[in-house]
Amino acid sequence: MADSTRHLSILTVGLLIHLSHQYGFKNCIGDQYSNNLTFTCSQRAEKLISLIVGDLPASAINITIGNNNVSHIPTESFIRFFKLENLSMDSNNLKFIDGLAFRRMHQLRTLILSSNRLSKLNCSVFQDLYNLTYLSLKHNLLEDLPQSLFTSTPQLNTLILRNNSLHNFSVVVRSVSSLSQLKTLDLGFNFLTSLTHLNSSLPKSLTELFVCGNKLLSLACADSFLTNIRLLDLSKNVELSTTAFKGVDLAQIRYLQMGSTKVKIFEFFKVTNVDATYVDFSDMGLTDPSQIIKLCTFFRKSKHTTHMTLKLNRFNMLPNTSLTNCPQITGTFDISSNNLKQVKCLEFLEGQKHIKSSKIEHNHIKRLLSCKGTKYKLPLTELSFRYNRILSVKSDAFAHTPNVTILNLNINSIASLHFGALRGLTKLQILRLDNNLLTELWDSTFEGLSSLETLNLRNNRIAVIFYGRFQDLGRLTILDLGGNKISHIYEGGLRGLKRLRNLYLDGNNLKQIDSIEFAPFQNTLEVLDLLKNRIRFTHEIFVSPFVNLSRLRDLKLDGQQPFGITRLPHGFFRGLHSLRNLYLTNSRIDHLASDTFDDLTGLAYLTLDNSCNGLVHLERGSFKGLRNLKRLSLQNMGLQNLSKEVFGHLAKLQGLYLTHNVMQHIDVEVLNSLSSLSYLDIRKIPLSCTCQNLELQNWTLNNYKVQLIYLHSLRCKESIGNFFFNFDTKVCFVDLEKYMFFVTAAVIFVSIVVPLLHFKLYWKMKYGYYVFRAWFSEQWRKLREDEENCEYDAFISYNFNNEAWVLEQLLPNLEGNGSSFKLCLHHRDFAPGRNIVDNIVSAVYGSRKTLCVVSRNFLQSEWCSLEIQLASYRLFDEHRDVLLLVFLEHIPERELSSYHRMRKVMLRKTYLQWPGSECTDPAMAQLLFWKQLRRALRTGSRMEDEDAAGEKKSSGTAEGDQTDSARANS
Q1: N or C of the chain: less Cβ packing under 10 Å?
Q2: Beta strand pairing status for 605-607 and 631-633?
Q3: What are the start and end residues of every segment in region (Disordered) (predicted)?
Q4: What is the pTM for the complete model shown?
């Protein structure tokens, strides 16, 4: 019974393991690195949610269902996913969600239902979402919210209702009033006309309220309505006027935005108690600079302000005295998106002694003039002039900002940096000059920038890098020269970049690369981007350009123009032992030598997508050096087959991407050789639905380790309507009758021969089998050891029905009462957990003798029969006197006639009869019995010659006679 229970448990565990793995999902893709915890189900044809997520594992934690045509979520649609924490269902054309649709999703924390067509919500739709903290319903058609909608979401702290059709603020307040943890409420771009609400109030926990882009005419709320609000966005309410704020308590506000309204800022400060330092003045109609000067008078109570924002006011100048009456700005001064044409060395910031950042983006500034000799030094550490119209930067343009560490001059029209334009910026760490019109770099362009760490020159018109242009940039770690027209780098052109880690040269006109160019930073470079240049090789090269880049981690050689790199010379990647990622897409390589990747022993990701020139044949051993490769992308390579000789070395490969190839058959042996494979993409491959792929079909349906992307969507090339996973395989078994004939004949033959062998040779075969097992498990050596090395004096073979006699009579008389025998018993000395047959073999051959306690039950026991058989074989075959028989009851000879081995032993060996109750003096008879038994156990183990054997037999007969005499006397 115990064994049956154990086997059932094993089967149950095996079944659970079997079910816990997935071979593929019909409408979802599991993240390769999330261990079946994260799934994306996008752009599928199914309209039912059950068909989209029906085959996902219940252990999923993150599910994204986007850009589908699902209009309805029924009740308990996700009840299986008891561990789900994040669910995103945006852009699905949802119209209806049933009550209890998210039932028992107690672990859900994030729910996104954005960009759908929901117009109503059932009051029980969010029931059971006890741990929900983030809910987004933006871009829907909601007009109303049920009062009890959020009663089951006590942990909700962020609620996004932006871009709906809500009209009544009171309805919203009534619905969210129970949310004691709510911190952020976004009601932007609805149709609210006022903030009036009755019989309920916003949660005291609410600190951020967004009601921008509505149609507010008035606030019409109680004085204490905004007591707990810290961030209030009322912008883009175009009809909201100053009078709406009369009587409203704004003392606790820490950020207030009112841009694009009718609010008159100066009147506003007269009717409210808000602190001016917390107001965002963007788009407040401050077109006249004098208004800014007047604005500062409202800051008299404050000595400092963290930020001052004046975006979108469309003023075209800022006088030097604009901020004279303003408090000290300790953070950012932002005057972006105005009509400024010049800033005159930021004179308007002269009195700001603590300012850290200034943003002057999206204006009309054309030049940055020289500021040499300015009497003031601004403490700015960040300065941004992005999105202006700057054509040139004069010498010493930043002499007044020596502490700047981040300077953004990108996305302008800068054609020239004058000599010394960046002079004095000794603390500069990040410089962005990308997306300009620079054509050349001068010797002094970056002179003195000894602290610079990041330099971005992307998307300019630089054609040549001359000698020593970066020689002062000893600390530079990132240099981006991508998107220029660089065709040549002079020797020494990159001199001085001794700490460079990332070098981007993509999108240029380089035709060749040389190891000399990388010499200054060959021990530090980790990322090298050469994408979309003109690098090609028409002949073999002798020295790899990367041979000294010992720390290079990422190398991009994609899309060399106009036809790709086409050829990879022998030893091209020599020395790149640390390379982790290699990109060779769009290269049209016509041949891959077998030693191409031999040096890339550390490579983890390789992509050769679109790198074919017609149909590609990969040579044997092409990937043999990539023993650590984890992801291999061979999409649109023109591959006709997968061979074990090519892919068999990729023992650590986890992801294999094969979409858009031309193979009609995939060898299952190749897939089985990829022992670590967990992700396989074979979409849009013309797999043939024929017997050739029968084994592949079985593999795809029965593997529980590899995820096949959209397995159930793979179609047969022969027919548009047929799918690969269930194509008809009956035709593959046309010769079934022939195989059945041979199988039947074999079964009949075995059925006849096996019983005959069992009847004639059962015990000899069984004994041979056990002895072979003992030898195979290195026990044969133990069986041949001398008797002096035996662990026990005797192994006691008995049936469990005679266990009482063994424990009460045999053990006390042989191990106790002054005797020194050491006995081996099943229940006491067998090794736990070991096979019982191995235990019996060890006991028989590990004891000097085997003592069989014979009874009728003993004769009927298969285990006892095995024990006496092993002992008798040892007796006859090894010529060792190792077997003793003790009869507990009188068994007539006719009953022993069927036990051939037993009778044969009795003819050759002594045996003892236990004196029963019929003896006249049982005590005396038993004393004599124990004396004879001890003597028999002490005798030698070697059998004498035939005469001595006869004497032993006579002696044994005399002993039997004495026993019988004692029985008769009693």
Answers
A1: N
A2: parallel
A3: 941-970
A4: 0.72
Q: Which long-range contacts (CB under 8 A, 24 or more apart) does 816-822 make?
A: 819/934, 821/793, 821/794, 821/934, 821/937, 822/791, 822/792, 822/793
Contact by Cβ (8 Å): 484, 462: yes
Question: 222 lies in a domain?
Answer: no
How many domains, the chain? 2
Residues 504-548: tens digit of each pLDDT: 999 999 998 888 889 999 999 999 999 999 998 877 666 889 999
Which CATH number covers residue 822?
3.40.50.10140
Residue at which a domain ends, from 156, 191, 207 = 156
* 405 vs 426: CA distance, rounded Å: 9
Of 121, 156, 191, the position where a domain reaches its end is 156
Query: What are the C-alpha distances in Å from 13 to residues 7, 115, 794?
Result: 10, 43, 43
Through-space distance between the first and last CA atoms of the chain, rounded to whole angstroms:
46
Parent domain of 122: 23-156
DSSP helix/strand/coil, 158:
strand
Q: Which alpha helices (H) appear in 706-808, and where do they start and end?
A: 736-776, 780-783, 803-805
- How many other C-beta atoms can be found within 10 angstroms of the C-beta atom of residue 535? 19
Averaged over 300-309, what is the pLDDT? 83
At 47, which CATH number? Answer: 3.80.10.10
| CB-based contacts of 944, cutoff 8 Å, min separation 6 | 952
Residue 139 covered by a domain? yes
User: Residues 6 or more apart from 170 whose CB is under 8 A from it?
Assistant: 196, 197, 198, 200
| Close Cβ partners of 6 (under 8 Å, ≥ 6 residues apart) | none
Lowest-pLDDT choice from 193-202, 526-535, 937-946: 937-946
Q: Per-residue pLDDT for 449 more than 90?
A: yes
Q: Is residue 284 part of a domain?
A: no
